[in-house]
Amino acid sequence: MKAHVDKDTCIGCGLCPSICEAVFEMDDDGKAVAKNPDVPSDNEDEAKDAEASCPVSAISVSE
């Protein structure tokens, strides 16, 4: 499973790393980034939760 953050869409709310810190973090520019784009199998549910919770749909998590 792969995770991606569209930095042009991201508003930097910080929700994704609070839900799944194994995959997402806040970058120096204040926007989120997938620090681990290859989602570990034990974090897939949390990564999908982060995707669903993003208020601007900037996250994609897919096979």
From TrEMBL:
Keywords of this entry: Electron transport, Iron, Iron-sulfur, Metal-binding, Transport
Domain (4Fe-4S ferredoxin-type) ranges: 1-29
Disordered: region residues: 31-63
Pfam families membership: Fer4_15
Domain of life per record: Bacteria
Function per UniProt: Ferredoxins are iron-sulfur proteins that transfer electrons in a wide variety of metabolic reactions.
Name the record gives this protein: Ferredoxin
Origin species: Clostridium gallinarum
Lineage per the UniProt record: Bacteria, Bacillati, Bacillota, Clostridia, Eubacteriales
